[in-house]
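Q: I have 440 residues here and want to know how they pack in 3D. Can you give me a structure?
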Amino acid sequence: MEINPFAKRYHHLRDITRATCTLDAPGAHNEELAIVGGRLAQVVRVKGQSVTLQIFSGTEGLSNDAEVLFLGRYPDMPIGDQLLGRFLNAYAEPLDGLPPVEGQRISLGGPSANPVRRAQPFEPILTGLPGIDLNNTLVGGQKIPFFADPDQPYNEVMATVALRARADKIILGGMGLSYDDYLYYRDTFRQAGVLDRIVAFVNTTQDQPVERLLIPELALAAAEHFAITNNEKVLVLLTDMTLYADALSIVANRMDQIPSKDSMPGSLYSDLARIYEKSLQLPAGGGSITILAVTTLNQGDITHAIPDNTGYITEGQLFLRKDTDTGKIIIDPFRSLSRLKQLVIGKKTREDHPQIMNTAIRLYADAAEARSKKENGFDLTDYDVRAIRFARDYTEQILSIDVNLEMDAILDRLWRILAAHFTREEVSVKEQLIRKYWPD
């Protein structure tokens, strides 16, 4: 890293915590980079001449007379097609054993695109997962989280989406990944031969937690380059935003900020919104940034500050859960929601999509009611028995995360499942659609 030989040098650190230190440094600016005792740091608070620095590698062994150099610049990264196929750390340095990425550098953390430049989302982003494409269709420019328990295979789902999604570029931002999960992403992408459209920024459990705060900045800066400069469809995958929020909490606590709900910093909403609001759809012919993020739940608590704030910011949610009848991990149709799907289903997808989707969920609800009757000792009607059988087929062939189908194939399969368990009258779909799509 180049250092200005004329940069002012300071000493006399005070209030050294595990991640921050404070000193008097007139003229320092918020978010400016610095070198503290040979360690990279960033200004996180300026109050008069008093400046607090966040030291990314931690302060262990740092002395009070360590030298501090302010660099006069802000976090940046190289940008361009040379990023494709690379796995980089929180400083955009190689994790893959290849040479450093060269090229033009851009600053991180810039403002979101001007609303005047944005268009209403209009194009579906199909993933090949029927639980998403059928019931919770993603739209270019949307921001939506996966809510999942920590023991669920959300990284496998994200990798699957990366391989199947119809997007020009995939940007992975991995925060707090285990080394095995990092290797899983790397090996999966390599073996699938898709590295030419993927960029990955990774922070592992072996790295400093505060470095996780840089990962979304890097991922979204790369996404904006490909979407705005190159007019490409970009899908950003962020995992795990709960660990990102935990890193925010660590820094806030070490700066003696008063915590808010669930020990989170009071700025949690704005910190999350600054990331999610980077999603955008440019007018026809332009690119888009779609953000799909994982938020792990603490013992399934959806009221925790992290998922609670996330729900206010994003445009729906996708719930992963294990189906007790089949043992499959599914995308729960009852608790999942895409608020923008109405912009594309039946318009950019086949005409029968809205009706057959709603019909299947209604019948799935009937099956849930039938199971409740059975568990409480009530007799089941013939319709109840058929509804339960339908729910099993629907779960295994549509909702399960291991199903991979094109959109029209999903609809055709659902018609066959419906016809196997119900009469035309029981499905209550428009007659013109019945005549056209009901299997013989």
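Q: Anything worth noting?
A: The mean pLDDT is 91. The CA atoms of residues 26 and 192 lie 53 Å apart.
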